Recover the amino acids of this structure.
């Protein structure tokens, strides 16, 4: 089905003399200059130059990891061996990527390295006290905590008093006193700026790079993990994160680790043409899926890539199979909620169901929040005594701030500004539910910003133009992929079916085609008279080893008043 939007929801940019002047100053095609004007119009020329060619060394050296980074370095240098090392990770892509990176770094100074990934439905969010109590009995000499642990100094101090070395590499907000000196988290620096908003895997990778913990040549082959986690956690793509993703994607294209290579093969993704969209829409959901359904071990095994080729491909096939199951569960719940909202059955913003699998609710909540631009809590029971929930808020809300207000009534909680999770006792749930409903009602949602688009016909975009625009990526959070607009009346439009079963279609706009996948030609015909224009984006494609530029239809823009 084709998506539509109104003309008033767009901010249309046109080529001007300033575009030509900027292209001349930056020695780039006018299309790339137009994209920079659209997305970075308030920046000075030197900032734009650095955006095109980010200085990685400058960015990483300016990253402030606080005193925890220095204390962790001192502990690393003080030991010739950390003995038996246990890495305690988390169950999403950042959690498993940082787990694998920690294992591969600490193997340089350990007799043995093992890992533990909590189960979402059993152990909840963050460090689990019951698990930590068992750590000394497991013969552990060193505990490395990744993607959690910042707010668990009290639990960690018990282990430190028993002689266990403690390292924590995290990026979550601080909500409790921090007394463990070797917690490395940019959020501990109260002056933290945009450059310090990085994922846990990047915290560990940057610490190891800045402090020369292991040879930098070794870390160059580990940057793919930081790239995956940065995209998965929707980190803002400032210059440091852009560099990490760019280098990591180049590594995955040219010399991927075994598990990633096998996963790309199974997903039929051509390695040289790997994009950030491939990672966010296809690769990362497979890595996330095991932790949402049951245990994240399959994701860790895939990234470690140990064993024969048969073992590696079996691990990857497990990821794909589990992700299909996750997609089915997610789609079914999303449809149930969509129907409930549209029919008026679901009038509350806090929704609960006894039979919802807790592992997939975060994905559903993100979808509902984005689709309806409304805050949402989805919750379900875990056993008879615990309720777990996930919270999503649009612009104008603060998910972590909301949970902080009711933290005394929660068993555990954590997250980011727009996404958070919590656990609460069944006894406290009615009170927490009502408090959440009240606070979500009080959120003043910021109006959706106009979508910036450049007015240009697809026939006026060349492959070389698009390559230059691609150099402004990777695209994602804080660096959105550019969209383009062509007026229907400016260029003659014809609608055609395509595909064996005619399930897809395309719109011929002069000498170019706008491809509309999973959209019937009849669906476009039905709204054609109401359409003012089309929003689309280019992408490079390879057919029989020949590079070509495709144009993908994103929205039909309806006339005002329709």
């Amino acid at each position: 089905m084709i998506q539509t939007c109104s003309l008033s929801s767009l901010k249309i940019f046109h080529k001007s003399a300033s575009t030509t002047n900027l292209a001349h100053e930056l020695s780039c095609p006018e299309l790339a200059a137009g994209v920079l004007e659209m997305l970075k119009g308030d920046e000075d020329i030197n900032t734009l130059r650095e955006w095109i060619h980010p200085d990685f060394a400058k960015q990483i050296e300016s990253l402030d990891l606080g005193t925890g980074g220095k204390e962790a370095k001192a502990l690393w240098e003080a030991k010739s061996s950390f003995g038996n090392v246990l890495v305690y990770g988390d169950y999403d892509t950042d959690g498993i990527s940082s787990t694998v990176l920690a294992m591969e770094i600490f193997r340089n100074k350990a007799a043995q390295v093992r890992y533990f990934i909590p189960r979402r439905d059993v152990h909840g969010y963050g460090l689990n006290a019951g698990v930590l109590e068992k750590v000394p009995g497991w013969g552990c000499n060193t505990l490395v905590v990744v993607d959690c642990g910042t707010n668990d100094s009290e639990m960690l101090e018990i282990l430190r008093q028993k002689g266990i070395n403690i390292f924590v590499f995290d990026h979550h907000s601080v909500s409790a006193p921090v007394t463990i000196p070797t917690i490395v988290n940019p959020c501990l620096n109260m002056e933290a700026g945009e450059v310090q908003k990085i994922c846990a895997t990047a915290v560990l990778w940057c610490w190891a790079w800045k402090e020369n913990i292991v040879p930098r040549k070794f870390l160059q082959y580990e940057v793919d993990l930081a790239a995956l986690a940065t995209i998965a956690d929707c980190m803002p793509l400032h210059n440091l994160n852009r560099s990490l993703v760019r280098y990591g994607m180049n590594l995955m294209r040219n010399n991927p680790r075994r598990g990633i290579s096998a996963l790309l093969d199974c997903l039929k993704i051509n390695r040289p043409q790997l994009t950030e969209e491939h990672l966010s829409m296809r690769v990362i959901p497979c890595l996330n899926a095991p932790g949402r359904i049951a245990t994240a071990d399959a994701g860790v095994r895939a990234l470690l890539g140990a064993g024969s080729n048969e073992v590696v491909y079996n691990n990857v096939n497990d990821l794909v199979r589990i992700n299909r199951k996750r997609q089915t569960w997610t789609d079914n719940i999303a449809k149930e909620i969509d129907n409930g909202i549209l029919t008026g059955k679901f009038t509350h913003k806090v929704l609960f169901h006894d039979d919802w699998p807790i592992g997939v609710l975060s994905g559903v909540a993100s979808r509902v929040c984005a689709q309806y631009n409304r805050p949402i809590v989805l919750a379900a029971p875990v056993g008879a005594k615990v309720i777990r929930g996930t919270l999503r808020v649009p612009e104008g809300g603060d998910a972590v701030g909301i949970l902080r207000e009711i933290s005394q009534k929660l068993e555990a909680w954590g997250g980011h500004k727009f996404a958070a999770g919590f656990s609460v006792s069944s006894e406290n749930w009615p009170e927490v539910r009502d408090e959440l409903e009240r606070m979500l009602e009080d959120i003043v949602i910021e109006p959706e910003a106009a979508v910036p688009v450049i007015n240009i016909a697809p026939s006026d975009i060349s492959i070389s133009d698009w390559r230059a625009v691609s150099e402004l990526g990777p695209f994602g959070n804080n660096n959105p992929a550019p969209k383009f607009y062509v007026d229907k009346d400016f260029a003659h439009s014809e609608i055609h079916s395509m595909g064996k079963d005619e399930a897809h279609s395309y719109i011929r706009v002069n000498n170019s085609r706008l491809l509309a996948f999973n959209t019937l030609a009849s669906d476009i015909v039905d709204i054609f008279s109401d359409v003012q224009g089309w929003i689309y984006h280019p992408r490079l494609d390879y057919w029989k080893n020949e590079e070509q530029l495709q144009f993908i239809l994103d929205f039909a823009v309806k006339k005002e008043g329709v």
